[in-house]
């Protein structure tokens, strides 16, 4: 078992990474909380697979356990679903000593965490991520929220979990597309923060695509360590350090938004966004030769898209203006300057962005 401590003072918590971790959830929670009630938030697909397992795991805590299911998909990550969840919390008679458990991927975790953050001005919640993307990224750091019709994640808050219980064994039931979705975030960490991780991914592409247990667990642990290290230094993105984690997301979120959250998954859009961001770095002569090619080859090798063919460039540019990382109408881009190091670049000329978008297929 691997335990990564996220040191945030009063909001500190642990990330536990181990096969079978979900079955030991009560053991991990008992030193942290004596819940009056537990509400599991999930979707029908995940709950059908792991609902009984997590219920049985929580029984030793000796409290009433109920569940509330949401629709599956980014298109349901909105305020209407949050209202449904809040109604469910009232019906389940949750109080401030109750605990919400988010069992699912990034959409479930974001919505369960946001609902927990505003119900009674904040109740504790636990992340039990069931997708690779959620295990290495969205379950860590306390960013919770929903989408607005004008852009992704425009409504939300910071609400740190009580615990992140990461069980790589749950990935065995993940679809191939959803698994690839998480690999984009894994590759992101290698490009912006860990050359050794990137090289490891290059060497073990075959094992990685086949979900080789030993290698995958180590990769998940390393990604969690990277994110924990960064958010400890800038939990609310005040200094800008945490913004480095948004590599590929400025353009990626815009691509998701303008295609209605249905054509590309989050990870696929981020993959396209990383290629575009690296292209911006190339046009500005910020990155040595070979970096763009290595990144693109790795993304393609795991089955992720590297082109945004047919996507309307003007709509992507407009959508980026609503990006949360924009300030005073000026966009910030995270760009690589080598494998293992990313930097934040402000005031990138519009013509450079448009050229990069054109070169990845936007029209």
TrEMBL record:
The gene is aroB. CDD domains: DHQS. Coiled coil: none annotated. The keyword Metal-binding applies. Belongs to the sugar phosphate cyclases superfamily. Dehydroquinate synthase family. Its cofactor is NAD(+); Zn(2+); Co(2+). Its main location: cytoplasm. Pathway: Metabolic intermediate biosynthesis; chorismate biosynthesis; chorismate from D-erythrose 4-phosphate and phosphoenolpyruvate: step 2/7. It comes from the Bacteria. This is 3-dehydroquinate synthase. The keyword Zinc applies. Catalyzes the conversion of 3-deoxy-D-arabino-heptulosonate 7-phosphate (DAHP) to dehydroquinate (DHQ). Binds 1 divalent metal cation per subunit. Can use either Co(2+) or Zn(2+). GO terms for cellular component: cytoplasm. InterPro entries: Dehydroquinate_synthase (IPR050071), DHQ_synth_AroB (IPR016037), DHQ_synth_fam (IPR030963), DHQS/DOIS_N (IPR030960), DHQS_C (IPR056179). GO terms for molecular function: 3-dehydroquinate synthase activity; metal ion binding; nucleotide binding. It comes from Abyssobacteria bacterium (strain SURF_5). Keywords: Amino-acid biosynthesis, Aromatic amino acid biosynthesis, Cobalt, Cytoplasm, Lyase, Membrane, Metal-binding, NAD, Nucleotide-binding, Transmembrane, Transmembrane helix, Zinc.
């Amino acid at each position: 078992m691997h335990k990564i401590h996220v040191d945030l003072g009063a909001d500190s918590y642990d990330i536990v990474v181990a096969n079978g971790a979900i079955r030991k959830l009560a053991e991990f929670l008992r030193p942290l909380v004596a819940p009056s009630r537990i509400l599991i938030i999930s979707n029908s697909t995940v709950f059908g697979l792991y609902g009984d397992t997590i219920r049985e795991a929580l029984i030793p805590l000796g409290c009433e356990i109920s569940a509330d299911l949401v629709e599956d998909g980014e298109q349901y990550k909105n305020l209407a679903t949050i209202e449904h969840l809040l109604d469910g919390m009232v019906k389940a008679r949750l109080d401030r000593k109750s605990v919400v458990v988010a069992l699912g991927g990034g959409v479930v975790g974001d919505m369960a965490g946001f609902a927990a953050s505003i119900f009674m001005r904040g109740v504790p919640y636990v992340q039990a991520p069931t997708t690779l993307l959620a295990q290495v990224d969205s379950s860590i750091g306390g960013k919770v929220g929903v989408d607005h019709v004008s852009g992704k994640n425009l409504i939300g808050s910071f609400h740190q979990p009580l615990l992140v219980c990461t069980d790589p064994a749950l990935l065995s039931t993940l679809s191939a597309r959803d698994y690839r979705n998480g690999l984009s975030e894994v590759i992101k960490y290698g490009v912006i923060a860990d050359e050794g991780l990137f090289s490891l991914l290059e060497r073990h592409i075959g094992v990685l695509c086949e979900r080789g247990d030993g290698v995958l667990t180590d990769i998940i642990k390393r990604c969690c360590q990277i994110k924990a290290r960064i958010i400890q230094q800038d939990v609310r993105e005040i200094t800008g350090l945490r913004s480095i984690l948004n590599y590929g997301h400025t353009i990626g979120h815009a691509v998701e938004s303008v295609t209605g959250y249905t054509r590309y998954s989050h990870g696929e859009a981020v993959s396209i966004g990383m290629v575009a961001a690296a292209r911006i770095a190339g046009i500005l002569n910020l990155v040595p030769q070979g970096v763009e090619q290595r990144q693109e080859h790795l993304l393609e090798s795991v089955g992720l898209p590297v082109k945004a063919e047919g996507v309307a460039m003007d709509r992507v540019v407009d959508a980026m203006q609503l990006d949360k990382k924009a300030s005073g109408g000026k966009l910030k881009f995270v760009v690589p300057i080598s494998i293992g190091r990313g930097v934040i670049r402000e005031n990138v000329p519009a013509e450079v962005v448009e050229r990069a978008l054109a070169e990845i297929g936007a029209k």
